[in-house]
Amino acid sequence: MSSQVPSPDRSRSVHLSRRGVILSSAALAFSGLSAWSARAAEGGVINEVRGYGSLRPDPAGVLDLPEGFSYRVLSSAGETMDDGFLAPDHFDGMGCLELPDGRLALMRNHELDPDESRLGPSGGRPELEARLSGVPAFDRRPDGRVLPGGVTTLIVNPKTGEMERQYLSLAGTLVNCAGGVTPWGAWLTCEETMISAPRTLSSHGWIFEVPATAEGPVTPVPLVAMGRFRHEAAAVDPGTGVVYLTEDRDDGLLYRFLPRTPGRLAEGGRLQALVLEGGADSRNWRRADMAVGETRAVRWIDLDGVEAPADDLRIRGHAAGAALFARGEGIHLAPRAGGGSEIFIACTSGGSRRLGQIFRLVPGGAEGGDVIQLFVEPTDPRIMDYGDNLVVAPWGHLVVCEDRVGLRTNHLRGVTPEGRVYTLARLHMRTELAGACFSPDGRTLFVNAYSPGRTFAISGPWAEVSDAAT
Asked: For 448-466, how does the pLDDT look when each residue is reduced to its tens digit (9 = 90+)?
């Protein structure tokens, strides 16, 4: 049985900026959401609410969007960047940060392994390998070549929408999957790997911090107190400085890091894992341990030996009572109406059909009392299939990237505060969508196609949605 705790009010969830909203004509397009309760199947998708309406075929055959929306390609894998290196492939997690001069820094991960130098910033070219060997880098292959993973920074002019320059900002890391922006203007990039010697000179599975203002490759410092595991994404609570972390494994944990000094992660702190009170398998694989909408109380336990040379942190944590989550991936934090924060977590292979889940974690503040809710669990791939990276839009809906690579087409899905799903975009490239993030003014959605890598800027009649419209 689940613990008897009050369920969070869904009508108040994922509200970011709803006070004093003036409904524009674009927002009125949403006014039929509550009335449009019947599911509508169209173009191989099922929309539980209307969203922005039908998708229009892209004449270029790349990205279908609703009427009134358009995209531009800001950056493509393999093109020469402004520092002379090549834009690495495998575009993954990404964050958008405003710079002091008003420009935007898109911090973009590259999920590359040791044998993919030809896809990295050198492209495998000897002359670029020689240049790369002279920049600050975390690690190398045994043959001396700098590892190809890392971060690139794209500087975007918000007035023109143009990318002004792009360059390498972190080098020598591996399988940089997702991460998260910080309130102090940095990007946390996460290694989703446990590779170590003899394939590399050092161990991997760390988080690194890259300031948005960095003009070139920073000196990489692994944040070892935040644990060594297959990191996926991070979300920082601006009120407490606590960092919430996901782990991309079928038997992964949900973590939080309590920094010794908020905003100074390199000074260390405590790593903890989430425990579901009353016990349950959140994955719902063998039986329905959690129903959609159900809320459970949680607590946190301290972890030791967080550098985990044996790759056993999750195993030891689960043995001590920590709950299992199925491939925790995207995580994003938003303010709650009335104060405090809420955190949304995508678990890509969770659910009875293993199509994915989205959880909603509500920290209880200084008094404790954290709760977690199973927010979404699709039972039909036409509704949502393998939700991965996610972001809370400025008007309160979730935008979720699908990651079902293969024969299926991937989509961007929207999720209303009531947990109802609609389709926002369709990608015709046979690859995943990743790295969705909004400009601070909410006018542009940036998102990546993984490989061949493309970074898109999507604009259109984005609308703030009033409570009445949902």
From this structure: 999 999 999 999 998 743 3
Average pLDDT, the chain: 89
The rounded distance, in Å, linking the Cα atoms of 128 and 105 is 25
Answer yes or no: is pLDDT of 30 > 90. Answer: no
pLDDT (tens digit per residue) in 326-373: 999 999 999 988 788 999 999 999 999 999 999 999 998 655 689 999
- Could you tell me if 456 and 449 are in contact, meaning their C-beta atoms sit under 8 angstroms apart? yes
What does the alpha-carbon distance between residue 86 and residue 71 come to, in Å, rounded to a whole number?
Answer: 23
- The reported pLDDT for the residue numbered 39 is 53
Q: Quote the CA–CA distance of 440 and 1 in Å, as a whole number.
A: 42
Nearest CA-CA partner of 97 in 177, 149, 16, 153: 153
**Secondary structure of the chain in HEC code, one letter for each residue:** CCCCCCCCCHHHCCCCCCCCCCCCCCHHHHCCCCCCCCCEEECCEEECCCCCCCEECCCCCCEEEECCCEEEEEEECCCECCCCCECCCCEEEEEEEECCCCCEEEEEEECCCCCCHHHCCCCCCHHHHHHHCCCCCCCECCCCCECCEEEEEEEECCCCCCEEEEEEEEEEECCEEEEEECCCCEEEEEECCCCCCCCCCCCCCCEEEEECCCCCCCCCCCCHHHCCCCEEEEEECCCCCCEEEEECCCCECEEEEEECCCCCHHHCEEEEEEEECCCCCCCCCCCCCCCCCCEEEEEEEECCCCCCCCCCHHHHHHHCCCCCECCEEEEEEEECCCCCEEEEEEECCCCCCCCCEEEEEECCHHHCCCEEEEEECCCCCCCCCCEEEEEECCCCCEEEEECCCCCCCEEEEEECCCCCEEEEEEECCCCCEEEEEECCCCCEEEEEECCCCEEEEEECCCCCCCHHHC
pLDDT of residue 41: 64
Asked, as a colleague might, if the bond just before 198 is cis with ω within 30 of 0, I would say yes
Residue of 219, 456, 207, 233 lying closest to 344 (CA atoms): 233
Going by pLDDT thresholds of 50, 70 and 90, the confidence category of residue 17 is very low
Share of the chain above pLDDT 90, in %: 83
pTM of the model: 0.90
pLDDT of residue 342: 96
pLDDT score of 57: 96
Q: pLDDT digits over 92-115, tens only?
A: 999 999 999 999 999 999 999 999
| Phi then psi dihedrals of residue 389, to 5 deg | -60, 145
